[in-house]
Amino acid sequence: MCSSIATSKKHGANLMYLSGLDIQHATRGQWRNQLPDEIKQIQIKHLQTDSRHFNQGDAFLALRGPNFDGHAFAQQVSDKACALIGDHQGIQNWSDLKVPQLEVSDTLLALGDIAHVWRKKLTATSVIAITGSYGKTTIRSMLAHTFNALGIKTTATHANLNNLIGVPMTLLGVPEDAEIALIECGISEMGEMQQLSKIVQPDIAILTGITSAHSEGLGGVEGVAHEKSLLLKQLLPQGWCALGEGVRKQLKDMKHDCMETFVGWQLQGKTLSFSYKDESASLTLPLPAPHWGSNMAFVASIVLQYGQKHQHPISLKAITSALATWQAVEGRLQTLSGINHCVILDDSYNANPISMQAALHTLAAMPKRRIAILGDMAELGDDAEYAHKQLDVSDVDMLMLVGTHMHALHQQIPASQWFANTALLLTWLREHQAMFTAQDTILIKASHSIKLHLVVELLAEQGDTHAI
To answer: What are the Cα distances from residue 428, in Å, to 139, 218, 400, 433?
Structure first.
């Protein structure tokens, strides 16, 4: 079983249609033991990198990682595969496999090259690339929901497939008749965005916001801004970009057609009101979350701009009606029913200073006893201790902190409880579950590596982790 990546047919199924020659030219590879006529007959409709999701007629591309080598799993799929793609070292062990084999210099680069060839065939699709230090997944989710609700055929990144493997796999799953493809692009090292941008070459680029999140290894906030801005350099000639709050000031040499939020918004309790020119509309949010209001106004602006650019006018009312039925992504401030009828705000998937403070502002607007279980924010580099100490938790009635960096905040607030790791917190919570009541709202948030989703699983009503 190859442990590279799971990409199922129902989530970004690879619906491409490329020939053996297309693949060869894209990767600059060489088909082994194949005559020219045989190469022309090779037709690849699905590309897989994981033997666990392999179906008859798929092509298998063997990836390498620190703890796995996909080449070792080619034998398992060779009787089903239309072709195998591997590097020089790995392909040496395939001599007894009677299936077309393409030798490339680097299979990860080849995956990107193949995806880029398919992207160039998507001439009827507006490819929208989304990046930023925060808000990528929420903006992508809101846009996908809105466009689809408006009857615009849209495909989008699934889960967290936003890196040098996930982005190509997502692109390869975009059907030719898609009107919009939303591709989320995440980076953690220098050079990654340059590669991703060349693969995607977006018609529209969205930069949600730039902070010190993931700045470790990127040279601080300025380094993050530079790396994220590389996405704009690959915009197609008639392309445009959308910038979140404050982004324009952080970017240098801005030469592109860029828009910022132009839809006005106001949040009173859970009622969110929009205004644009002579139009106005409103909706009711599941939570009194100001950052959702800001995100939705940004999304509404993008959708309006898209409609104007495509001579397809879209009303603010239609956009608002679509956003009214949007639901938060799992682990991204999702409201769950908890033990003893408490309310859980599950924001355990990720965290950075901006999103952490936004979640705390949402908790502050809740009418019940406000409890915050907060874990470390990772990959902040030299800013880590300062970023944790700067969090405003003044509206929290009970504060539990987890992790090395959160100890700095604990020292400032002695009344808080601190746990060195999640395992210790879980042990304490199992002994004190009775303390939670129907009068409590519990915010649970940290970087994914802290594993506070285990706390969500413990405190959510058994068998009832649905959104409310």
So the answer is: 36, 37, 11, 9
